[in-house]
Inverse folding.
C-alpha cells in the first residue's frame, strides 16, 4: 500500500513516516504542494495524506488539481483547521476523510485501514475482533472458526460496526448505510437485525448505548 | 439652565433700570417744581394780599409770601406756611396728603414762593412712564425663552442622538459610528471616536488572535510529539514509567491548547451573530459518539434520554459545552460507573442534564469550580486525571452566551455530580 505524505512540518512527517512504515505502508514524503503534484504525475499512490497549510499553496488547491486527473487516489486531509466550513469544503472537494490535529496515532491507523479496504487491494480483507472474523471480500463471517450464515442486511450491519470498533453508530447512520446499499427498511428493522446478530454471535458482542446507538468494542 | 440665567439677567437689569429711571424722573420733577416756584415769585400778584386761587388742579399747590405775610395761595393750602421759609426742597404734610415742595427766595422783592406737588401723583406718573419702557422686555421674555429653547434643542439634537447611540451600544461593539447625515461640528468628534474605536478593536483582536494563533500553531508540534511517543512506545514495555508520564504530559498539553482555542473562539463578538436552529438532542448524540472511546475504556455505562429538541444557538459553542461536560463526567467517574445524559423541553426552557456516579463536588466549592484554572483539590488532584481547570469556565462562558443558567446538584446516584444547563424559552422553539 503506497502512501504519499504531504506535510511541511518535518518533525511530524518524520514521526509519521516511521509509524506508517512500521505498520507496513510504503511512504513517500513531500513538503510542498508543487512537489506533491509533480510526484502524482509520475507516481500513483493509493492514499494521499494531505496537510492543508502548505508553504507554497493551499492543500485544498492540491486536492482540486488532484481530483481533476483521471485516476485519483483516496485522500485523507490531516490538518490543524477544525472549523466546520473547512471540513465541509474539504469533503466537498472530494477528500475521503478529514482528521484534525492533534490526533491519536491509533485513530489515524484505523482510518487508513478503512480507506485501504475501500481501495479493494487490501492485503487483508478480514476484520478480526476477538473471536469474530469478517471477510469483506467473500462476505463471510465466522465465530471461533465456525461459519455463520448471515442474511445480507445483517452482514452489512455487522461489517459497519466491526469497521468502526470503539465508535458508536447511531440508529440513523446505520439506517442510512442500509438505504445507501439499496435496502428497504421498516421502522424497527435495525433493532430486529441487531437482536438476530446477538443471538447468532454472542449476546454481548454488540453493545447498546441507550439513546445513542450501537457499538462493538475495540479488540 | 440657560433660560434661568437669562431670566435672572433680564430681571436684574430691569430692576436696575427701574430704580435709576425713578431717580431720574424724580430729579426731572424736582427741577420742574423749582421753575414753577421761580415763576410764581416773578409773576405773583402783589396787590391783593391773602388772595386765594381756586382754579388749579388738586395735585398742585402754591403759596407766595412777602415780608412774613401771605400774598397768594392755592385754595388747597392752609393759611400757614406749607414749608419752611428756607430755600430748597422739602417733603411736607398738609391737607391729608404728602407733598414735595420747593421754596424759592426772591431777594429782589423779598418774596418766598413755594410750589408743591402731591407725592402720590408724582410717583404714579413716574411709574407709568417707566412701566411703558420696561413692559415690552418683560412681555417678550417668555417668547424669547421659548424660541431659545426650541433653537438650542434643535441644534443639540444630533449630539443627543449620538449620546443615545453610544449608550445603547454593547460594551464589545467597536464598529464605527456612521458619519453621514451628521452636522459638520459633530463629524470631527465622530471621526476621532471612530479612530479610537478602530485602534481599540485592532488591539483587542491582536490580543485575541495572539492566544488563538499560538494555540493553533501548537497543534502540529503536539501531533509530532504524540506520533514520536507512539513510535517510542513500540520499543518499550507499555508500563515504562517515563513513557507513561511523558504521554500524560503530552495529553495534558494538548488538552490545554484545545481549551484555550475553545475559550477564544467562543468570545461573544465572534459568536453572537451565528445563532442557528440546532437540534440539541442530535448534537448531544454526536458528541457522545465522538467522545465514546473515553467512556469505553473506563467501562462506564453511558445513557442518553430525550427526543428531538430544537433550540436557537451556536453549534460549535454548544458542541464545546457538551464535550466539556461529557469529558468531565468521564474523567471523574471511576471504572464501571454510570453517566446519564438527558435533554428535555419543559415550560421553564430546555434542560440539558449530565449526571455521573463519580465522587461529586462538595457544595461549598460549587461556585469556585467555574473559575478559570481552578481545580478541586488544587495540585493535589488525583494525578491520573488530565485537566487544566478551564473546562467548566468555558462551559459557564458558553452558557452565558446563550442566556442559560447552570445548576450543580448531587446526582441521583449514590454519589456524584449532576450538572443542569437550562436554556431559556425565549431562544427556543418546541419540536415541530
Amino acid at each position: 500500500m503506497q502512501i504519499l505524505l504531504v506535510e511541511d512540518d518535518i518533525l511530524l512527517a518524520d514521526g509519521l513516516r516511521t509509524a506508517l512504515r512500521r505498520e507496513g505502508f510504503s511512504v513517500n514524503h513531500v513538503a510542498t504542494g508543487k512537489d506533491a503534484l509533480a510526484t502524482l504525475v509520475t507516481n500513483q499512490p493509493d492514499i494521499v495524506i494531505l496537510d492543508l497549510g502548505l508553504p507554497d499553496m493551499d492543500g485544498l488547491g492540491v486536492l482540486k488539481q488532484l481530483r481533476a486527473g483521471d485516476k485519483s487516489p483516496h485522500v485523507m486531509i490531516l490538518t490543524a483547521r477544525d472549523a466546520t466550513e473547512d471540513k465541509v469544503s474539504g469533503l466537498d472537494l472530494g477528500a475521503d476523510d478529514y482528521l484534525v490535529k492533534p490526533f491519536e496515532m491509533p485513530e489515524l491507523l484505523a482510518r487508513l485501514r478503512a480507506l485501504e479496504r475501500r481501495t479493494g487491494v487490501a492485503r487483508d480483507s478480514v476484520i478480526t475482533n476477538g473471536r469474530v472474523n469478517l471477510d469483506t471480500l467473500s462476505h463471510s463471517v465466522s465465530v471461533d472458526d465456525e461459519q455463520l450464515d448471515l442474511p445480507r442486511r445483517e452482514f452489512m450491519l455487522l461489517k459497519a460496526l466491526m469497521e468502526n470498533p470503539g465508535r458508536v453508530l447511531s440508529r440513523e447512520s446505520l439506517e442510512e448505510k442500509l438505504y445507501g446499499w439499496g435496502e428497504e427498511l421498516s421502522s424497527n428493522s435495525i433493532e430486529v437485525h441487531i437482536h438476530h446478530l446477538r443471538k447468532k454471535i454472542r449476546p454481548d458482542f454488540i453493545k447498546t448505548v441507550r439513546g445513542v446507538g450501537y457499538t462493538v468494542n475495540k479488540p | 439652565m440657560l433660560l434661568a440665567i437669562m431670566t435672572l439677567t433680564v430681571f436684574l437689569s430691569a430692576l436696575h433700570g427701574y430704580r435709576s429711571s425713578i431717580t431720574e424722573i424724580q430729579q426731572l420733577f424736582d427741577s420742574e417744581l423749582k421753575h414753577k416756584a421761580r415763576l410764581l415769585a416773578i409773576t405773583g400778584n402783589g396787590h391783593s394780599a391773602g388772595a386765594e386761587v381756586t382754579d388749579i388742579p388738586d395735585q398742585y399747590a402754591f403759596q407766595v409770601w412777602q415780608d412774613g405775610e401771605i400774598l397768594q395761595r392755592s385754595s388747597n393750602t392752609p393759611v400757614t406756611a406749607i414749608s419752611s421759609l428756607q430755600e430748597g426742597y422739602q417733603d411736607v404734610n398738609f391737607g391729608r396728603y404728602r407733598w414735595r415742595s420747593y421754596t424759592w427766595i426772591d431777594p429782589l422783592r423779598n418774596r418766598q414762593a413755594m410750589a408743591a406737588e402731591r407725592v402720590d401723583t408724582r410717583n404714579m406718573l413716574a411709574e407709568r412712564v417707566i412701566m411703558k419702557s420696561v413692559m415690552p422686555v418683560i412681555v417678550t421674555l417668555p417668547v424669547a425663552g421659548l424660541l431659545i429653547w426650541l433653537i438650542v434643542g434643535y441644534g443639540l439634537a444630533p449630539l443627543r442622538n449620538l449620546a443615545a447611540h453610544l449608550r445603547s451600544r454593547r460594551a464589545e461593539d467597536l464598529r464605527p459610528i456612521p458619519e453621514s447625515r451628521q452636522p459638520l461640528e459633530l463629524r470631527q468628534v465622530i471621526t476621532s471616536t471612530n479612530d479610537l474605536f478602530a485602534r481599540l478593536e485592532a488591539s483587542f483582536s491582536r490580543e485575541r488572535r495572539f492566544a488563538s494563533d499560538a494555540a493553533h500553531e501548537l497543534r502540529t508540534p503536539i501531533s509530532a510529539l504524540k506520533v514520536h511517543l507512539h513510535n517510542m512506545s513500540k520499543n518499550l514495555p507499555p508500563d515504562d514509567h517515563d513513557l507513561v508520564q511523558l504521554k500524560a504530559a503530552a495529553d495534558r498539553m494538548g488538552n490545554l491548547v484545545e481549551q484555550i482555542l475553545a475559550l477564544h473562539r467562543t468570545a461573544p463578538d465572534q459568536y453572537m451573530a451565528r445563532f442557528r436552529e440546532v437540534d440539541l438532542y442530535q448534537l448531544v448524540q454526536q458528541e457522545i459518539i465522538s467522545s465514546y472511546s473515553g467512556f469505553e475504556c473506563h467501562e462506564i455505562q453511558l445513557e442518553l434520554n430525550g427526543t428531538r429538541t430544537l433550540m436557537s444557538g451556536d453549534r460549535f459553542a454548544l458542541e464545546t459545552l457538551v464535550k466539556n461536560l461529557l469529558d468531565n463526567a468521564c474523567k471523574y467517574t471511576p471504572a464501571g460507573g454510570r453517566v446519564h445524559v438527558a435533554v428535555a423541553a419543559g415550560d421553564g426552557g430546555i434542560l440539558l442534564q449530565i449526571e455521573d456516579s463519580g465522587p461529586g463536588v462538595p457544595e461549598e466549592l460549587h461556585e469556585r469550580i467555574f473559575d478559570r484554572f481552578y481545580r478541586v483539590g488544587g495540585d493535589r488532584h488525583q494525578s491520573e486525571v488530565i485537566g487544566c481547570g478551564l473546562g467548566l469556565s468555558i462551559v459557564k462562558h458558553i452558557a452565558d452566551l446563550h442566556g442559560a443558567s447552570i445548576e450543580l446538584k448531587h446526582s441521583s446516584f449514590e454519589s456524584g455530580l449532576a450538572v443542569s444547563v437550562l436554556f431559556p424559552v425565549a431562544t427556543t422553539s418546541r419540536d415541530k
In short: Chain B has three domains: 2-136, 172-265, 270-427.
